[in-house]
Amino acid sequence: MNNLPKGVLPDIDPYGDTMLYIDHINFISDNIQIMIGNKERQFCYDKEYNQLKELYEKFKSVTPKETTLFLVGD
Questions:
Q1: 10 Å Cβ neighbour count for 27?
Q2: Residues 4-26: what's their mean pLDDT?
Q3: Please, which residues bridge with residue 21 across strands?
Q4: Which of 56, 74, 66 is nearest to 18 (CA)?
Q5: Where are the alpha helices (DSSP H) in 1-74?
Q6: Which of 13, 37, 43, 64 is the most exposed place for a label (fewest CB within 10 A)?
Q7: What are the two backbone dihedrals, phi and then psi, of residue 7, each rounded to the nearest 5 degrees?
Q8: Phi, psi of 51 (to 5 degrees)
Q9: Distance between CA atoms of 67 and 22, rounded to whole angstroms?
């Protein structure tokens, strides 16, 4: 997963069956932040931007102390 180019998200199971460990969550969260920053620098507040913000809100609420696994789609 760490071999992905900067700003590229890994494939995520759309049915919510993919379990992610906290390192994966942090990696995805960091990349979502990068993608949001790129959109903001371009003043591009489109549908994709809104989806990224919503997705980021889901990931940022997960902390290592609260959980070690996170089910995408919850």
A1: 18
A2: 63
A3: 69
A4: 74
A5: 22-41, 47-60
A6: 43
A7: 85, 0
A8: -65, -40
A9: 8
Contacting residues for 22 by C-beta, under 8 A, at least 6 apart: 62, 64, 67, 68, 70
d(CA 21, CA 32): 17
What DSSP designation does 17 have?
-
Q: How far apart are CA 62 and CA 35, in angstroms?
A: 19
**Helix, coil or strand: residue 70:** strand
Phi-psi region of 5 (alpha: psi -120 to 50; beta: other; left: phi over 0): beta
For the stretch 20-74, pLDDT in tens is 677 777 888 889 999 999 999 999 999 999 999 998 888 777 655 554 455 555 4
Burial class of residue 31, CB neighbours in 10 A (0-12, 13-18, 19+): buried
Apex 43 CA angle, 37 and 45, nearest 5: 85
